[in-house]
Known about the structure:
Layout: E1 8-12, H1 17-29, E2 34-39, E3 59-63, H2 69-78, E4 83-86, H3 93-98, H4 101-124, E5 132-138, H5 163-182, E6 186-191, E7 193-195, H6 204-214, E8 218-221, E9 227-232, H7 233-246, E10 252-255, E11 260-262, H8 263-277, E12 290-293, H9 308-314, H10 322-335, H11 337-340, H12 346-356
Parallel strand pairs: 1-2, 1-4, 2-3, 4-5, 5-6, 6-10, 7-9, 8-12
Antiparallel strand pairs: 9-11
Amino acid sequence: MATTTQRKVLITGGAGFIGSNFVHHWVKTYPQDRVVVLDALTYAGNRSNLADLESHPHLRFVKGDICDRPAIDYLLSEETIDTVVHFAAESHVDRSILGPDAFVRTNVVGTFTLLESFRQHWNSRRQPQDDRFLHVSTDEVYGTLGPADPAFSETTPYAPNSPYSASKAGSDHLVRSYFHTYGLPTLITNCSNNYGPYHFPEKLIPLMCINILMGKPLPVYGDGQNIRDWLYVGDHCSAIDRVIQRSQPGETYNIGGNNEVKNIDLVHMLCDLMDELAPHLPVRPAHNLITFVKDRPGHDRRYAIDASKIRDQLGWEPAVTVSEGLRQTVQWYLAHPDWWRPLLSPEYQEYYKAVYA
Ligand code: NAD
Ligand code: DAU
């Protein structure tokens, strides 16, 4: 498919971490495309992530819920949407342990609602073959790996271990079934851990950066030996772009950074970067703040992604190394206290107490 095709793109969850990075990526790469962002602005959604695009002539922001079928029907038709990039989700494992309900509602029922609405819309448009529905999913659907296991590939059986990953697995199965049953031109991507600008403070990397800046303990779960495969968010965005532009409907691609790092090593890297880059730190060296805390229930030990399919079929590879990406990320958090300070709200403090007390 030509990369120059002009699209009318609906981006769900476009005010969240990856979604807002993707909106920036798409608007910059395809300035003529119509981009509609649909986001419910939950605690994780933040209009200010898109502040610099407020007056963009081709961008529209709609506050709305992916479970609201009439609103979605209206939007798809009003905007004659041909491409859906679906990021909207409840995304944090610890919150799914505290309260799984919202995860089933948004991730399963919300994805189902979008699929049904898009199916009706696509049929009413006489099933254009260039339309796409790309569902953004996670490597967590594959479960956990032992130290010597091969990395997750697209044929690894699903074995989700948290309510979050189970709800994402449910949504992946629905998306898959809409291709096989109705021929809907769906795509699924399963990506490893992202990091970068606009990452909400509940997740490991921003939480550690902010706690270092505030001189608060750095809570490392369990023995800190769990492994994640880290990918800079800009690389995730370019991979999704590549899949939309080049792949055949019905395909699924794993996306990863080839950067397996133990949590404790990652936290030390962040401490070292902060020691080097932050002019004032309440506690220096920052690693004195590291505190081992009770493990996350059901904590997956290791994730690793085999991204050879997207590399071989679509020519995508990550461009940012973990050391470059972490340096850029630390610099971004240092430069943007006005972005993250308001997020440490009373609701966030309640959440923090519930997980870490
Ligand atoms: P996030 O929590 O930062 O953002 C989620 C966004 O979805 C928020 O803007 C929120 O307001 C919106 N949203 C939530 N419920 C909604 C609803 N019912 N209707 C409309 N909007 C709603 O999440 P993220 O980290 O940016 O993740 C985005 C997607 O990527 C998710 O589907 C997640 O499963 C997937 N993913 C994330 C990672 C990662 O490392 N963060 C890795 C792989 C895949
Ligand atoms: O693998 C992709 C997934 O990555 C995405 O699907 C999820 O949406 C995203 O949240 C992320 O899930 P993780 O659970 O891996 O990310 P998190 O940042 O919460 O934790 C990363 C690791 O760090 C994990 O092993 C748990 C550990 N951790 C996390 C926090 C918040 C700690 O040790 N201490 C902490 O305070």
